[in-house]
Write a structure and sequence with these properties.
Number of strands: 10
Largest sheet: 7 strands, mixed
Number of helices: 8
Distance between the termini: 29 Å
Helix content: 25-40%
Oligomer: single chain
Structural class: alpha/beta
Shape: globular
Order of helices and strands: HEHEHEEEHHEHEHEHEE
Mean pLDDT: 86
Low-confidence stretches: 1-5
Length: 241
């Protein structure tokens, strides 16, 4: 991507990687509405998948960033770990844990044929999930046969879960310059887990499921953020002080 000669990304699906790169790198979705990333920032990437956003941050700051990327799905984490290691960013760390509103463990559903639909709230037997798949087809994120196959190939993993305030306390994180959240219907849980540490969060970007729009907007506003949203099929909330 130009600045740091980062090697080409490893990807489980080229279609998914291209979609993420188009959204994050080319369209600069996470850089709108006053959101700023600077050198030496502390950035948390919650729901990192294979690391496209993390690598964009590393490239944008010329590797001068303290980055923590969280991905609880083991196959995705393995690729994330390689992609971040290949950047040569010494202060970037990856964590195979899920950020939720409790400390403990929980099962996550992984869809190998379309990992962007994976998550803690995926129910492959629930017809309501088909609505999300239909939306993905309409916005051409993936061919219809790929989305259909995703639900037929689901895998389940037991994962470690932690609240964000607990994790920040344990790891002596005094502040966060940017919190990015993309966690397939868990975004309100993740933001609730900030608890009493909101004063230490400077900026938030979150892809928000339509059922969580009001809750997320209200929570951010109540904690002193100016909130903006994109007009895409999958709204992105961008919030800053």
């Amino acid at each position: 991507w130009g600045r740091t000669n980062i090697p080409k990304m490893i990807a489980l699906s080229q279609d998914e990687a291209q979609f993420l790169e188009n959204s994050i790198v080319k369209k600069q979705e996470y850089a709108d509405y006053g959101i700023k990333i600077q050198r030496n920032d502390i950035v948390l990437d919650v729901g990192a998948n294979i690391g496209v956003f993390s690598r964009w941050v590393i490239d944008k700051t010329e590797k001068d960033v303290r980055l923590h990327a969280f991905e609880p799905v083991p196959p995705l984490f393995d690729v994330l770990k390689q992609n971040i290691a290949n950047t040569g960013c010494a202060a970037a760390q990856v964590h195979c844990v899920g950020i939720r509103d409790f400390d403990g463990s929980s099962k996550i559903t992984y869809l190998p044929n379309y990992s962007l639909l994976s998550g803690y709230h995926v129910n492959v037997h629930d017809q309501n999930e088909k609505g999300d798949a239909d939306m993905l087809k309409q916005v051409q994120v993936a061919p219809p046969e790929v989305v259909d196959a995703a639900f037929a190939s689901a895998e389940t993993y037991e994962t470690e879960c932690v609240r964000l305030d607990s994790w920040m306390d344990k790891n002596n994180i005094t502040h966060v310059d940017l919190l990015k959240v993309d966690v397939e219907k868990c975004e309100f849980e993740v933001l609730q887990s900030v608890g009493s540490r909101w004063r230490d969060i400077r900026q938030v970007v979150a892809e928000v499921h339509y059922a969580n729009l009001k809750n997320v907007s209200d929570l951010l506003t109540q904690n002193g953020f100016v909130v903006h949203s994109s007009d895409d099929a999958f709204p992105v909330f961008l919030a800053h002080r």
